[in-house]
Amino acid sequence: MVRKTVIKVGLLGLGTVGTGTAEVLFDTAGRHPLLQEIEIYRIGVRSLDKVRDINLPQDVLTTDLESIVVAPEIDIIVEVLGGLEPARSLILKAIDCGKHVVTANKAVISRYGDEIFTAANAAGVYVMLEAAVGGGIPVIQPLKQALSVNRIQAVTGIVNGTTNYILTRMQTEGSDFNEVLADAQKLGYAEADPSADVDGLDAADKIAILASLAFGGRIKLPEVYCEGIRSVSQADIAYADKLGFVIKLLAIAQRRQPTAALSVRVHPTLVARSHPLASINGVYNAILIAGEPLGQVMFYGPGAGAGATASAVVSDVMNVAAVLKAKSNQVQTQSNPLLACSHQDYCAIAPMAELTTRFYARFLTKDRPGVIGKLGTCFGNYGVSLESIVQIGLQGNLAEIVVVTHDVREGNFHSSLAEIRTLEAVDSIPSVLRVL
Ligand SMILES: NC(=O)C1=CN([C@@H]2O[C@H](COP(=O)(O)OP(=O)(O)OC[C@H]3O[C@@H](n4cnc5c(N)ncnc54)[C@H](OP(=O)(O)O)[C@@H]3O)[C@@H](O)[C@H]2O)C=CC1
Ligand SMILES: N[C@@H](CC=O)C(=O)O
Ligand code: NA
């Protein structure tokens, strides 16, 4: 006989994502029937006095988060607090108490994934994280399951909604960076400390998680190269546009040969207008995955926001609930390897100097004959071949020269720039960006 179980959830956090999650779990009509067997038992928050946009059963709220993770009635802990502590300790405590965990917290997973998954594997519980990357876009489960038969070659993504929203509005409306950031905060897209978005750290957390799943090894976060969007100016956006590009904050994990070290990086990048990632605008995210034998597949959707992220959180809750239900009916006794994390070793990460990529660079120089020739000589000394070189205008009495290179070893390109900086005719190099 199949018994009907009620699976109890302890929800840690009732902010943007927590509220969206509770709304889905309280309103199950027309969704998967299994959701009707899932109940929110307790919700942990910082303040009981805060006005909430959601009707809650009496006494469900508490500020005692520890009491939730140790409650014997609770099967699944959903951590949507954000930040490193107390999130990390509460996740570990929940695992220690034999509870499954669903989290949207990429900051904790990318830094403490090793400790958390080792503990979860030892305790025989799942730690699920679909909401941690790409918000509502299903990308974690596809990487663990449907795509895992492929040899992955590259994961290239726009994985931060806030910065894509900012860059899109700077590009299409010429808006001011700080004004648009304030809007992204109001819309609930940004992290509590938005420098995590703007400086690329959130995207670095996410690409570390994606790379780990795609390439089958853990990633040491400090080895992920990370550059944010503060240096992207209206001048670069305008030049990129003239040259047929848009500027996107890309997160890339790439392995050129199966045995080579991985390149894992986040930086603003010129993307050709014809490339599929160039048309991903606003808070939308997209992740392009290339693998053998599949070829390319692109996941696209809302990368942040209450409803979108709740969709991912609740799908994880439902996956675990399905396992618990099967277990209670004695159908399944072992961990499902396509839900659990199975890596123990670390990936070897290649130094940035070894990266081969194209570059865009903008120079301010004295406006006199022969300067372009001198730049060309310095580039030639280091094997840097130019795809285009343009001098469009003057800034004051200085000439503005923009170059786009062919593929070049990053170390060689920087050596050529070091030599160019010594030229008497060169005033400054205001920007250097990579080109996809
Ligand atoms: N916002 C988004 O679009 C997305 C967010 N995420 C991730 O989801 C997580 C949550 O984000 P979000 O919902 O935006 O965050 P919010 O800041 O909106 O909400 C955080 C919630 O956690 C509670 N909280 C935080 N710290 C504590 C603490 N020390 N003790 C008790 N309660 C605490 C807050 O309580 P109180 O309400 O009382 O202040 C609040 O309810 C983060 O890890 C974020 O990176 C992932 C994908 C998208
Ligand atoms: N701050 C993040 C929220 C989702 O992960 C973003 O802007 O993408
Ligand atoms: Na996701």
Characterization of this structure:
By secondary structure, the chain is of the alpha/beta class. It has 13 helices and 17 strands. The chain folds into three domains: 7-135 and 306-328, NAD(P)-binding Rossmann-like Domain (Rossmann fold, 3-Layer(aba) Sandwich), CATH 3.40.50.720; 140-302, Dihydrodipicolinate Reductase, domain 2, CATH 3.30.360.10; 353-435, ACT domain (Alpha-Beta Plaits), CATH 3.30.70. 34% of the residues lie in helices and 26% in strands. Strands 7, 8, 9, 10, 11, 12, 13, 14, 15, 16 and 17 form an eleven-stranded mixed beta sheet that branches. The protein has a six-stranded parallel beta sheet with strand order 3-2-1-4-5-6, sandwiched between helices. Helix 4 packs parallel to helix 9 (201-215) and helix 6 crosses helix 7 (177-186). The structure holds NADPH dihydro-nicotinamide-adenine-dinucleotide phosphate, ligand LTNE7NMQ and sodium ion. Keywords: Amino-acid biosynthesis, Methionine biosynthesis, NADP, Oxidoreductase, Sodium, Threonine biosynthesis. Pathway: Amino-acid biosynthesis; L-methionine biosynthesis via de novo pathway; L-homoserine from L-aspartate: step 3/3; Amino-acid biosynthesis; L-threonine biosynthesis; L-threonine from L-aspartate: step 3/5. NADPH binds at residue 106.
